[in-house]
Amino acid sequence: MKSLTLFEGKPGWTLLFVFGLVFPFAATNDYMLTVMSTAYIFALATVGLNLITGYTGQFNLAHGSFMAVGAYTVGILTVDHQVPFWLAFIASGVVVAVLGALVGLVSLRLRGHYFSIFTLCVGYIMFLVIEKWDGVTHGVADIIGIPAPSGFGLVSFENPRALYYLVFAFLVLGVWLMHRIVDSLLGRTFMAIRNSDGLAQSLGINLMRNKVLAFVLSVVYAGLAGGLYAGSVRFLGPDLAAVDHTFDMTMYMLVGGIGTLAGPLLGALIIPWLTQYLQFLQEYRFVVFGPILIALVIFLPNGIVGLYQSRKMRRVQRLVPKSGIAARQSASTRGDRHA
After folding, report:
1. Angle, to 10 degrees, between the axis of helix 303-338 and the axis of helix 244-256?
2. Residue 139, number of CB atoms within 10 A of its CB
3. Among 29, 115, 120, 273, which is least packed by CB within 10 angstroms?
4. Looking at domain 26-301, which CATH architecture does it have?
């Protein structure tokens, strides 16, 4: 089903794409490019979380931990085993896909908050493995010296601007692929499961198979985002696997609009910059940021994109009765003439 929002249509996407292309020329320093690149990486992971949560109706609280697994796969392979970055990056997606399939086969037998609690526990186990398995993950000593993504020919990703465009390209590709998924029969299957398990099953939909597929696709987005994060930040610590990052991505979905394609993307771009501009308040910035977030959730329960969509629908509904009355009046006039 095609979206009715400006942000989901061609003009909105064109505007966002052009903004991404010209942002480096408007940025006044490399720090701004780094902040935006990091926002893009988390936006990519959030788009994946939105697939399993917004479109399939399963809230995965281990999503941030899967992102950490992807990042640590790249870090361990490149630093400890001198594997080229792009091979390690592909491996991050494969490792997370296999792990996601195993976790999904077990966890998706549960429903609702039982599934969320189970994945919260799985995420915490991943965090403990990363923090305590010193011989593989370096533990609390962190992984440092991760190489930047390898360049192609004269193109090098050592400088912030080139790295920005690399991350931006992956975000564009990831959003385009997600658009293809949600607008396909597979996407409609996921939404049918979200709306009613029983009804979906009565239509012949294999619930377990499709839930696991949605889960795996979702965490692969997180794993690849983690691989990009490792190549962008160049060092890793266990905190990346903490549940805080999953809650951050959930906040991005809620602010932008859960269950929409553009919503998580907008939320992931707006919230980091809002926190950046409140840094002058130092430790008190969350005293301001907290009420702003609460107000957004209360007054915009469907997010920014959801608000626009609901207003669009109301305008359409107001126009439909008028057009119907006009049609009936026209038909009546034609009848009188024939009489």
Report:
1. 20
2. 15
3. 29
4. Orthogonal Bundle (1.10)
